Amino acid sequence: MGDIRKYFSGELSLLYPSEEIDSIFNIIVQTLFKKGRILQSLEPEIIISDESSEKISEIILQLKTGRPVQYILGETIFYNCKIAVNENVLIPRQETEELVSLIIKENNGFKGRIVDFGTGSGCIAVALGRHMPDAAITALDISEKAIETAKINAAQNNVKIEFLRADILNPEINKLPQAQIIVSNPPYVRESEKVHMHINVLEFEPHTALFVPDEDPLVFYRKILGHSSRILLPRGKIYFEINEAMGNSLSGMMKGYGFKDVYVLKDLNNKERIIKGVYYGG
How many folded domains does the chain comprise? Predict the structure, then answer.
């Protein structure tokens, strides 16, 4: 294992920092050999077959192009759920796990309906369904291919979810049921922020799920808040993942749509990444 790790690091040292290389290597070992980090430390010597060695070499070649390891492997782990991913959906991230964790923590014993706007891979809806088994969940996305992926993830995690193809920006979404919770991780990266992003995001992940125009960066939030007046029941809650620079602006917008108890929360990296509120009517 030490030799293959050294080879792996050497091949990718010009493209990724050492910590990211270690993270990628651990993901590959966990997926190919079904060994997490603890087992890797307890059983450091893994006999690698010629087939596995060839597979790792193929993975390295793809990694050198900038393709994310999650897309190469076709899966990732999100909040203890196995999630299939491909170029039609975003790769779930740690800050989104924090969003899910907050919802679960604040809604113990929840038995109402949750609506997930812009579900993508379905990771949020699936994780909530796994950990809030009495919740009814509706998830929507504009992309038919994303919904196909989300359906796979719901099935393989034994979660029942109602999926709808719908455009958040369309004001006439009439199929959505009333709910007690709305959650969304909509596109929020401004076009001008592309210059700060890694090649593996810019060239491989779907731009429609990431970017918004600089002149209207809260467009998806505004539309979802508009839908919420018809969807949310009294005292219903809304939870958003947000751009760290948009907390104050979005807080004011939410209050204008009849939300109170609006709070912006920081993630583990001390960035304002989540906002929540309670609907009292506008």
Answer: 2
